[in-house]
Amino acid sequence: MIALGCDHGGFELKQEIKKHLDQQNIEYIDYGCDSQEAVDYPIYAKKVARAIQNGECEKGILICGTGIGISITANKFKGIRAALCTDCFSAEATRLHNDANVLAMGGRVVGAGLALKIVDTFLNTPFSNDERHIRRISQIEED
Ligand code: RB5
Known about the structure:
The protein is of the alpha/beta class. The chain has helices spanning 11-23, 41-53, 68-74, 88-98, 112-124, 131-141, and strands at residues 2-6, 28-30, 59-64, 82-84, 102-106. Helix 2 (41-53) packs parallel to helix 3 (68-74). The relative contact order is 0.18. The model has no long low-confidence stretch (mean pLDDT 98).
């Protein structure tokens, strides 16, 4: 199950992503927002982060205008590794190396065509399970 969240800056792109996931029969829960009316991105980053923490969803996709504020917020949550991606190379690498569980994008940064390729890359790339990456990921959680 994929958790989706956005603010007004990411609403349009989230709609495109939902259509794309529907076409592939990929299940998701949309945690809002529900329109282009201005809202505060931390609210939606927190909903998605908590859905992953409590096991309701396995991965998340967060979109705000830049992807920055929404990823900064998500990364405050223990166990959340949100990667802000603007290209497919990074989306693949962050799954292989960081086992990122949240993809963040900027609705005012990437066009829908590229964003959907980034989504596919992120969702279809497994974690490498390499010892060095496991070690580094566990170091992220240490003080
Ligand atoms: C909203 O105008 C904008 O600040 C927000 O979408 C995001 O880009 C913040 O990081």
